[in-house]
Design brief:
Order of helices and strands: EHEHEEEEEHEHEHEHEEEEEEEH
Largest sheet: 7 strands, mixed
Low-confidence stretches: none
Distance between the termini: 36 Å
Number of strands: 17
Mean pLDDT: 94
Structural class: alpha/beta
Bound molecules: NADPH dihydro-nicotinamide-adenine-dinucleotide phosphate
Radius of gyration: 21 Å
Strand content: 25-35%
Shape: elongated
Length: about 325
């Protein structure tokens, strides 16, 4: 593999793939470090809703390869390796990866996020044995069973709707008093005959010897055990930024601050998608971030302009 690139993009999700497409179309020698799996978190999503041009939604496992194909046709290269660290040397960034070192004049960090875990007893032991983060992968396994979903945001409700296509009953357990998900999901969930929502519920333990048989829950009236065949956990996202420790100032949520052009405080380093501060959390926004970052990287390579926070010029 070549080791010298003008632009290296870390992350093979929608932000990274779209940045690669744009960067390659701008004529920049571009490499994408995809991490372990191309497609990022959205790869396993049965239906990405609200993406322009797809009124019926589009599966993540269709959309991500489509963008990759477009980026490849434009000239972008791909390596299945994660970015482990960045160091400035002269006017280049030296990038450490499991597949060896590569050098880049500009780096776009589009490393996305991972799904948070509950950190309660039983969770580690029963992971993959009835505890899942992927409704579209595992829904067929719970046909005609009762399952629980934890969370009250867009992911929890979207995945509860997917599960309701297979399961007999889906119980959403939410620790708050109101759902924070967008109305498009809320309305469908509230009306769905197979879905029940329980508020003010804390899940204290996952039950089962070698597979999930239930959860121990607590509400204002006390504790109880709830029998479920599987547990789907959607309690938010943790940005993938640990590999940057000490290199870049992160915001209090561990995300990367950027200006309006996706530029970070480090010259030639940009961030795009859910890993950056104040990301909108929509696939379309990640694609937009990727495009913006690639255009800004191109301008930087052309004229060296880099004041953090300056959006004009
Ligand atoms: P969110 O952070 O939006 O929601 C997390 C939910 O989990 C909240 O209800 C939160 O409750 C709850 N929660 C957090 N921690 C715990 C815990 N320890 N125990 C129990 N419950 C907990 O995450 P999502 O994954 O839902 O969404 C992530 C991003 O992706 C958002 O920007 C979202 O809009 C976006 N998204 C967009 C979609 C679309 O547009 N089609 C589809 C899916 C996701 P509390 O409110 O009390 O903190």
């Amino acid at each position: 593999m070549d080791t010298d690139f003008e632009v290296v993009i870390a992350g093979g999700g929608i932000a990274g793939l779209t940045a690669a497409l744009t960067s390659a179309r701008l004529g920049r020698k571009t490499l994408v470090l995809t991490g372990d799996v191309l497609g990022g978190l959205l790869l396993s999503i049965e239906k990405i809703d609200g993406f322009p041009g797809f009124p019926e939604g589009v599966p993540g496992y269709d959309l991500c390869p489509m963008i990759q194909e477009q980026a490849t046709a434009a000239g972008a290269e791909f390596a299945v390796a994660a970015l482990d660290g960045i160091t400035r040397r002269d006017d280049r960034w030296q990038l450490k990866t499991a597949a060896g070192e590569v050098r880049a004049r500009a780096v776009i960090l589009a490393t996305g996020s991972t799904l948070k875990e509950l950190g309660i007893p039983g969770e580690a032991r029963l992971r993959g044995k009835g505890i899942s983060h992927c409704a579209s992968c595992d829904a067929p396994l719970v046909r005609n069973r009762t399952v629980a979903v934890i969370g009250g945001g867009d992911s929890a409700l979207q995945e509860a709707l997917t599960l309701a296509g297979f399961a007999e009953r889906v119980i959403i357990l939410h620790r708050g008093k109101a759902l924070s998900a967008q109305a498009a999901y809320r309305d469908r969930v509230v009306e769905h005959r197979k879905i029940e929502i329980r508020f003010d519920i804390v899940v204290e333990e996952v039950l089962g010897a070698d597979k999930v048989t239930g959860v121990r829950i607590r509400d204002a009236t006390g504790g109880a055990d709830l029998e479920v065949a599987a547990l789907f956990v959607y309690i938010g996202l943790a940005p993938t930024t640990a590999f940057l420790s000490g290199q870049l100032t992160l915001d209090p949520f561990g995300k990367i601050p950027v200006d309006g052009r996706m530029r970070t405080e480090l010259p030639g380093v940009l961030a795009a998608g859910i890993v950056r501060s104040e990301a909108a959390g929509r696939a379309a926004a990640s694609a937009g971030d990727g495009t913006t970052a690639a255009v800004a990287a191109d301008r930087y390579l052309a004229n060296g302009d880099w004041p953090f926070g300056k959006t004009g010029g």
